[in-house]
Amino acid sequence: MQHKLLEILRCPVTRSKLTIKIIKEKKRLFGKDTFTVVEEGVLFADAGWFYPIVKGIPRLCVESFLDHEPFLKENLEDYASRRENILLEQGDLLKYVVKKNKRTKQSFTKEWGVYNYKTDKTWDADDEGMIGRFLKETDEAIDTLKGKVVFDAGCGNGKLNGLLAEKGITNIGMDFSNSIEAAYAHSTSANVHFIQGDVQFPPVAFGYFDIVHSSGVLICTNNTELSFSCLAPTIKNGGKMSVWSYHPRKNFLHNFFNSIRSVSSKLPLTLQYYLYAATLFPVSYIVKRIKGNPQNSREMMVDILDWFTPEFRWEHGHKEAAAWFYKRQFCKVKITTDELFGFNIIGEKNTAL
User: Has residue 108 been placed in a domain?
Assistant: First the structure.
């Protein structure tokens, strides 16, 4: 974690600024410059909340003090009492976040664990294609992004964030799965920061970002519109919200697969992986080869896991998504991409309100 990131971070519960206890620092090379980064530490907030920094990443999910208990036990003498105080005062909140997040964190950690950063494409797109898709979805150009700060809420493998950073665009990539660790490890630019966090409890300053982009993420939470409403305050007046969503399809095979995943997604993840590898993967491989799709085996498996393993996978129509924006006083709402499985929609935060 770069020291300057602390200015942007907030407690996801109390919204207070954070103070830091540094446990371990290291030198890290970004491009030609060397930076001192925080490798391990603890962040403290109001009302007794605290969050670990592990492997250089601020862990800012509400339940992070439970997820990283061994680390915190070792580095905080009063960890046990701090833990008990939060559980006593905020037990219901902890039960809610743990229940809604546990399965999803595991499924996306498993999914991106298949990905190879050196050889694989992300959703069939190479580096140029990923940048092009982002610009089309957000209705921006590289020149219009200069000087702006982007918040990628649900960054997955973090590949897009690194590409934006190489273009000189400051951005924060957030994910709440452990895929964030590989994203940070492969980062080569000081223009990108990675944090672990929950879109329903965004651990960043409100009114800060010029663009908030969430691609295929809100639909994998327990409530898409609720997640949208939680992210919206992070945008500055005149800033832009960009959301990609699945849309309903009148297609027998599509709906049949959704019926399958409604049952199979409840199975243990390791069992799911081998089940899909033995059944769906061979069919997918043959069909895609017949169609001339050059995806390699890992890319195909990532696609399958992305569809079938998440606990939640909602589909929404254009008008429904537009209503999320209008109800929160966004203007200039429009669809920027509309493809086979989904669409992207943007809106501008109304400066007059």
Answer: yes
Q: Is 144 inside any structural domain?
A: no
Buried (b) or exposed (e) across 217-242, using 16+ Cβ within 10 A? Answer: bbbbbeebbebbebbbbbbbeebbbb
96 lies in some domain: yes
> Other CB atoms closer than 10 Å to residue 49's CB: what's the count?
22
Q: pTM to 2 decimals?
A: 0.94
Domain boundary residue among 113, 130, 161? 113
- pLDDT (tens digit, 9 = 90+) per residue, 229-288? 999 999 999 999 999 999 999 889 899 999 999 999 999 999 999 999 999 999 999 999
Of 54, 80, 113, which residue sits at a domain end?
Answer: 113
State the residue range of the domain holding 35.
3-113
pLDDT digits (tens, 9 = 90+) for 56-65: 999 999 999 9
The total of structural domains in the chain comes to 2
Cα separations in angstroms, 92 against 72, 84, 98: 22, 13, 10
**303 is written with which tokens?**
């696609």
Residue 53 covered by a domain? yes
